[in-house]
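Can't paste images in this forum, so I'm doing it all in text. The chain is below; anyone willing to post the predicted structure tokens underneath?
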Amino acid sequence: MMRIMTNNEYSFELATRIKQLDLLRKEAISLSAGIIGQTLFKEEFYFCASVDRCVHLVDGFVSMLKDRNLTCVGVLLRMQMDNCMRSYAPFIAQDKDAVIDCIISGKQINKEKDKCGKQLSDSYLKKQMAKIDPVFEQVYNKASGYVHMSEKAFYQTLVKCENYSIEFQVGCELPEKCNPFLLEAADAFIHFIHLHFVMLNEVSESKKRYDDSHLDENEIGSQHVD
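Text version of the structure:
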């Protein structure tokens, strides 16, 4: 019989993940400053909103890990993966500005196309993300089970099924047997923040190159407010 991870053991293992998430949260703030740079364009609003969403997801995710709320942990993991997809979309879009305009105006981007003429649906973006991260599609599909009513909800409710007897739990504390799933989700969340930051770093570095080539020291100084 597989040994069950106790809640005390879970808390000990979780502490290292929370430290990583705290560091990533600070890195996100630094990234936003790099994205804004010395000038401001429409796309910076878009990518800074993506960073801000990531920060708030980190805050919520840490709280749900501490509460051992597996349902919300799964949903927030999926939301961070959605953040990755929405951040990647402008990189492959036929018309980057059109994609950004869609998000800012609250419209769907699935009618916009990539450089190969394919519509930017969630399913297509998921498959494109899988080309740069082989685990993306599999984890996305699993995490989606927490967003939509699925077998995840059923098996979390089912406690025991044996000897012609079925035991359910509703609103009870998560069984200790689920602790490894929480840690697995934490590791995945950290992984997809790193993936998100790869894209955001590209934006930050591109912005720095633009500023360096278009602004001399006097112009930069004149834009600085004490």
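Strands lie at 158-162, 165-168. Residues 106 and 138 are 28 Å apart (CA to CA).
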